[in-house]
Amino acid sequence: MKTHSTNRTTTLVITSGGDWRSWQQIQNDFHQFFDSREVYERYNIPWKRGAIFIGPPGNGKTQTLKALINQLGKPCLYIRSFKAEHSTEEENMGEVFKRARMTTLCVLVLEDLDSMIDNNNRAFFLNELDGFHSNTGLVVLATTNHPEKLDSSILDRPSRFDRKYYFQLPADVERRAYVARWNCELQHEMRITEEGAARLVCRTQDFSFAYLKELLVASMVQSISSGGSRSMDEVILAQTDLLRKQMSNENH
Fold first, then answer.
1. Sign of dihedral through CA atoms 166, 172, 177, 181?
2. Which of 197, 223, 239, 245 has the fewest C-beta atoms under 10 angstroms from its C-beta?
3. Residue 123 CB-half CA count within 13 A
4. pTM across the whole model
5. Are 71 and 39 contacting, i.e. CB atoms less than 8 angstroms apart?
6. What separation in angstroms does the CA of 210 have from each of 16, 55, 120, 174, 175?
7. What is the full DSSP assignment across 100-152?
8. What would the pLDDT profile of 191-228 be if each residue is shown by its tens digit?
9. Are 54 and 146 in contact (CB under 8 A)?
């Protein structure tokens, strides 16, 4: 876990797949905000918070989001899109923020923000985020798999998303720990050897936790289907090659 702070923003880099220290830091950030209204008002600082979870899919952003909402116990509005058949995106956006402001102490979740904001509605969104309205007691918590698609006026401007939490792909040590945990819970005939696990870790660079899970489940199914004619090492390494080809096709 690495934390970097400036006078504009605070960034938390999740370097170990959402380890306990990272999770504790995220909790502390939000609890401290909700407990600090008097301090904010004493120094005439707007009591609001914008935070964003950033990183490739399958590395714990949504799981952390759900856990955080449950742990905070505050009212929550969860939004995936501002599109609707009989109203404009701007109208729906305004209604969402209006409802959030009516619920003092509220977490407004915007899932996959990059897919919700475009050139046509960006100005309206920014005005709702930090324009005329005070947004007192409101936390806007967004997620994005593609920060490069977000305009710098959203991602980098102070007072909009001042907290950035980066969920990185698991490094060798995280993948090794993940595979070891799975291995311990498997029946003996399904287990990977130490040598096989080491080779697997080396060959799964750039795999997210979601892809690792898919790989392990698919390998178990394949092993069962083959009637145990091949070792689990052979099965899982072959499945790794297939999944990597699938990942390559998806990226193109």
1. positive
2. 245
3. 2
4. 0.83
5. no
6. 15, 13, 33, 13, 11
7. HHHSSSEEEEETTGGGT--TTTHHHHHHHHHSSS--TTEEEEEEES-GGGS-H
8. 999 999 999 999 999 999 999 999 999 999 998 998 87
9. no
Per-residue model confidence (pLDDT) at position 9:
57
Q: Map tokens 């490739």 to a residue.
A: 56
Question: What is d(CA 88, CA 127) in angstroms, rounded to the nearest whole number?
Answer: 16
Report how far residue 94's alpha carbon sits from residue 116's, in angstroms, rounded to the nearest whole number: 14
> C-alpha dihedral over 180, 182, 185, 188, to 10 degrees?
-70
* Strands 10-14 and 2-5, sheet pairing: antiparallel
Report the C-alpha gap between 82 and 86 in whole angstroms. Answer: 12
Distance CA 169, CA 9 (A): 22
For residue 220, give both structure tokens: 């178990």
Asked if 15 and 2 touch (Cβ cutoff 8 Å), the reply is yes
Report strand pairing: 163-167 vs 138-144: unpaired
3-state DSSP call for residue 57? Answer: coil
For 148-196, how does the pLDDT look when each residue is reduced to its tens digit (9 = 90+)? Answer: 999 999 998 877 998 999 998 998 998 999 999 999 988 888 899 999 9
**Which three-class secondary structure state does DSSP give residue 166?**
strand
Does residue 232 contact residue 240 with C-beta atoms inside 8 Å?
A: no
Gyration radius (Cα) of the chain, Å: 22
- Give the dihedral sign, CA 99/100/106/108: positive
